[in-house]
Request: fold
Amino acid sequence: MGEWKCKECGYNIKADAPPEKCPACDKKCEFVDTTCYIPDCGNTGKDPRL
Ligand SMILES: [Zn+2]
Reply:
């Protein structure tokens, strides 16, 4: 299970894959993977897009 965030509106969704269209924007948005946002995953530093 991953976590995705809409780059347009910041909507967060938990799913295996990013949805085809954002439930909040109701259009095709670009989603960023926020799974590695948690420190435990070994990824150092934050994604600047978040
Ligand atoms: Zn959105």
About this structure: Residues 6, 8-9, 11, 22, 24-25, 29 surround zinc ion (CB under 6 Å). DSSP finds no helices and three strands in the chain.
